[in-house]
Design a protein that fits this description.
Elements: H1 2-5, E1 11-18, E2 23-27, H2 52-61, E3 69-72, E4 91-94, H3 95-100, H4 104-114, H5 116-125, H6 147-158, E5 171-173, E6 179-182, H7 194-210, E7 223-228, E8 234-240, E9 244-251, H8 266-269
Antiparallel strand pairs: 1-2, 1-9, 3-4, 5-6, 7-8, 8-9
Helix pairs in contact: 2-4, 2-5, 2-7, 4-5
């Protein structure tokens, strides 16, 4: 199995939702007999670059386009100087390429230009309920979230801007087949402009086709984003097709670093 091929990760978790937010599958850890802790709903972890979807959506909302250029270069904000994963700089680069290659400096520059409060507001409007700190590092996913809320936020893009209420029960019937309960309603309504969702979806398709999510490429259209937190403590991939949205996390319960596991390896493959 994939988890056996990456021994430095003691745990992994997965949640799959249908396009309306219904839970299709939920795996809260490697072995329920060993640990009943549900890492989909209970584990608060740093999403790393998987949080950048909110940075770029806010940027698009406030007038930027995927073709706009920004310089990937060293940045220093009150003594904080974030580095790229590969520790080098690409110079002038489009926002589309910066997103697909998960360039940290550009995400921070974009967040600071439009105002990080707008990034936080975007995340909250899409269903993130965990507290988000108002600091430059919020653009790089320094605030902890859980896998379910992050996956449900991506569901908004997958559903062309419509919000969803994540749910596990659609209907209840008795032994005679009589319907005792039938879920009504699908969500809170429009959250994002459909055109904005389509642009973001295209950027996420580029991430799979030529960016950090290449290991998630399948035989049909798919979109997604990788995420890796500081020192390889968390690895994420959140992605979707036309009818299923899936979130995957790899890490250790004691928050110790992993070896050679990023969002573009095990989570994207799974």
């Amino acid at each position: 199995t994939i988890t056996e091929n990456y021994p430095s990760a003691d745990q992994s978790a997965l949640v799959a939702l249908n396009i309306n937010g219904g839970v299709i599958a939920m795996v809260g850890g490697r072995d329920y007999g060993d640990s009943q802790f549900n890492r989909v709903t209970q584990a608060q972890r740093q999403p790393g670059s998987a949080f950048k979807i909110f940075v770029y959506l806010a940027g698009l909302y406030y007038g930027y386009s995927p073709e706009d250029l920004m310089v990937d270069s060293e940045i220093n904000i009150n003594g904080w100087s974030p580095k790229n994963y590969k520790k080098d700089y690409m110079g002038e680069i489009s926002l589309n390429e910066a997103f697909s290659k998960s360039i940290n400096t550009v995400a921070v520059k974009l967040s600071e230009k439009i105002g990080r409060e707008k990034v936080i507001d975007m995340a909250k409007s899409m269903g993130v309920t965990s507290p988000l700190m108002n600091s430059p590092s919020v653009a790089l996913g320094a605030s902890e979230v859980n896998l379910l809320e992050l996956t449900s936020a991506y569901n908004v893009v997958a559903k062309n801007g419509e919000g969803v209420f994540v749910h596990g029960i659609r209907s209840i019937e008795n032994t005679s087949g009589e319907v005792l309960f039938m879920r009504k309603g699908e969500g809170p309504g429009r959250v994002l402009n459909p055109d904005l969702s389509k642009i973001m979806m295209s950027m996420m398709e580029t991430t799979i086709n030529t960016g950090t999510g290449k290991n998630a490429k399948i035989d049909r259209p798919a979109a997604g984003k990788t995420g890796t937190s500081q020192s390889l403590r968390d690895a994420w991939f959140i992605g979707f097709t036309s009818d299923v949205v899936t979130g995957v996390w790899f890490g250790n319960d004691d928050d110790s670093p992993m070896k050679n596991i990023t969002g573009g390896t095990a989570p994207a493959i799974l």
